[in-house]
Structure formats: structure tokens, C-alpha cells
Write a structure and sequence with these properties.
Elements: H1 2-9, E1 13-17, E2 26-29, H2 34-37, E3 38-40, E4 44-48, E5 54-59, E6 71-75, E7 78-81, E8 90-97, E9 106-111, E10 115-120, E11 125-130, E12 147-154
Antiparallel strand pairs: 1-2, 3-4, 4-5, 5-8, 6-7, 6-12, 9-10, 10-11, 11-12
Length: about 160
């Protein structure tokens, strides 16, 4: 079932082979420049398909996979979570990361400890994941917007 999900969500994947013993799937990208096509954070991985789309898998605890539209905010010590569904805390097969409709094809990806940065063909930068130290470039940090669960354009 995992192989079928991976193939359906990532058409550029030439082969997805599940290894025995609970190891991660092997993903081989056809004609990929691996320096630009694979990025890994502490507990998540991002791959850039030949079609200009991104796919993520691993931990999504802080939104670093960008696969769920969930924003967590904190005000005066109270946590507000728009979507309390924790079913996407871990993504076990490559899931398509949907950028805003006006975004171009992705040309570069980067993964930090618990955040991801994407550069598209128009020169626009999109970030998502943990923002406790302002690493998403949104002009805020810490309690104002600690996590972003979907790609957001950085204005610079």
C-alpha cells in the first residue's frame, strides 16, 4: 500500500522500493541533480521532482512538510489550533507539497531542523514549519506565529 501511495503522489519517482526491517523507502529520481533534488531536516525529508513539484515525508510535527493547512498561534499563554487533527504528524510516503496557485515550478529546496524553504522559477521564496526563532522570514517569531503548516510566500 505504501508503494502505491508513493507512486500516486510522486509521478516522477522512477522506483519506490520498501526495504525490510522498518527502514525508509528508497527513492530514485530519474535524471535528478541530487544536490538540488533532496533536502533533509532533523526528522523530515523533501524531494524535488523532475516535474517541478516538491514532495515531503517524515515528521510534520511543526508543519515542516507543508502538507496540512494548519496554523498554531499563541496569545497570552493560550494555544489556539485551527485544526486539532494530529493525523498528519508523520507522513510515511512522499506527499505532494501544494504551493499557492500563482507559484512557479520549484527550482531549489532547503530543509532546516524543523522548517523548509522553497524557491520557485519566478524567484519567489516560500517557507513553512517551525518559526520560533523567526527562521521563516515572516517578520515575526516566537509566540506570535510559532508554526506554519502550509507554504507561505516570503515578502522581501
Amino acid at each position: 500500500a505504501g508503494v502505491a501511495v508513493a507512486q500516486a503522489s510522486a509521478p516522477t519517482v522512477k522506483r519506490v522500493a520498501q526495504e525490510l526491517g522498518g527502514k525508509s523507502a528508497n527513492i530514485i529520481l530519474q535524471d535528478a541533480n541530487l544536490e538540488k533534488a533532496v533536502a533533509a531536516g532533523a526528522n523530515h525529508s523533501i524531494i524535488l521532482g523532475n516535474d517541478g513539484n516538491c514532495y515531503g515525508f517524515g515528521s510534520n510535527e511543526y508543519g515542516q512538510l507543508g502538507v496540512q493547512k494548519r496554523i498554531v498561534t499563541q496569545n497570552a499563554g493560550t494555544t489556539s489550533n485551527i485544526d486539532d487533527d494530529d493525523s498528519t504528524a508523520y507522513i510515511l510516503a512522499p506527499a505532494h507539497i501544494k504551493l499557492p496557485e500563482n507559484a512557479g515550478k520549484v527550482v531549489t529546496i532547503s530543509a532546516g531542523y524543523a522548517h523548509t524553504t522553497i524557491l520557485d522559477e519566478h524567484g519567489d521564496v516560500y517557507t513553512f514549519g517551525q518559526n520560533e526563532n523567526g527562521q521563516l522570514g515572516l517578520g515575526t517569531k516566537g509566540l506570535k506565529i510559532p508554526y506554519i503548516f502550509s507554504p507561505i510566500k516570503v515578502v522581501y
